[in-house]
Amino acid sequence: MESAYFDPYDFISDDSSNESVSEVQDEDYDMASSAGSDGTQSQGSGSSASSGDAMSISDVASSFQEKKNRVFSPRPRASTMSSYSYHSSEQFRTPSPSNQSLTASMRETLYREEYGRELNTFSDVYRLPADEEEIDRLEKQHNMLVDIFGAKYPPPMGVALRQGHYEPTKKVLDLGCGSGAWVKDVCRDFPYCEAIGVDLVPIDDSDPDFPPNLRMEIDDLNKGIEHFYDSFDVVHSRLIAFGIRDYRRLIEHMTRAVRPNGVIEVQEYDFRTYTRDNKLIPANTTDPLGTYPWWATFLAHVREGVAKSGGDIRAATDLESWVRSHEALTDVVYRDVYLPVVPGNCRRYQEDVYTRMKDDVMAFLRSLKPLLMGSGVSEQRYEYLVHHCVRELHESETPQYVRMQCVYATRRPDVLLEPLPPVE
Ligand SMILES: C[S@@+](CC[C@H](N)C(=O)[O-])C[C@H]1O[C@@H](n2cnc3c(N)ncnc32)[C@H](O)[C@@H]1O
């Protein structure tokens, strides 16, 4: 099966003298734009390779604009959290939501302040903020990723969520849903499905556009999701490895949570940087001389911080082999998507996608303060790293890419799985 993912290399050119880019061909995979009113999709025939035709910067900009306009879910509004559905304790993790106002005392229970940012109180492993600034970053990042991928969903998801007359209601589970940007899109694009988002903190459900077919469960995924077994047609997780102790175990849970012929999709970064030709850029945290690029060094600190707090920093690297080797998963599609965190030419910022990428990574630098300082990095060193990373964004002539490792697969109906043994 061919990959649905759009490779940003198709439009990124290093040749700054003519600033040409090659053509974007991903029409078949913009599931949202081809969704019928009942939320079902007409499937594309496969990913077209780039034709190599030159395209000017303004062509690319308008191509992105066009794509943005085709994404029909409403744009997110500013987050003002006021109420939520709450399932807090380990004993009460399974469905039956109750809507309550988020009182000051509940806020105190759910959030704590560290280094000027609000973090969740539920997990010591996940140490990125959960405040409005971070929610705003996640919303924008989601929209940027949709535009870069040229698709919101992998093709088999449309099939898995196609609702037949005599079938049980189709269900979607989003693990570590964050702002809820992805799962809210799902609820709008597939209005006949029901979706559950799980996270350490609630999604803002005060928005009048909050989908009626979405509910939220507050829980720590490290405690297991056995109550979800065999219940969903799609199980999704994206960029949650920082908070997961054992990602392979989570994949095992996901495989048991999905119904026969359902789809799992997982997307993670390995938090390293790469050259234009996909070579790993080395870095370590102890180099005092700035031998390595600053972004690579910053991410080395991030990996160290995540490892110290118990997160599974190797997850992205092993994703493909875990999924491919799983006896109950089939039709595995894997794709690396390289995203230009450092453009290597600041004139790129005339292009919408690079500006959005820069905004995302600048906000990401700020979000990492509690993790880095909590892991022993001094404030002086943190500020020094940020300063140099920002300079690199604007001045470096050498691009750096991060690799998003993306995989989706279908649950085989003919393989039965035993429940996982409890963690010792
Ligand atoms: C970087 S955000 C990504 C959010 C969303 N998946 C997206 O792609 O926009 C990571 C999210 O995973 C959640 N998360 C991390 N570890 C978790 C855990 N152990 N249990 C539940 N949620 C977790 C965090 O609270 C955060 O909202």
From TrEMBL:
Coiled-coil ranges from the UniProt annotation = none
For region Disordered, the annotated ranges are 1-101
SUPFAM superfamilies reported in the protein's UniProt record: S-adenosyl-L-methionine-dependent methyltransferases (SSF53335)
In what ranges is there compositional bias, type Low complexity? 32-59, 79-89
Compositional bias, Polar residues, is annotated for 91-101
State the superkingdom.
Eukaryota
GO MF entries: methyltransferase activity
- Protein's UniProt name: S-adenosyl-L-methionine-dependent methyltransferase
Q: What is the lineage of its organism?
A: Eukaryota, Fungi, Dikarya, Basidiomycota, Agaricomycotina
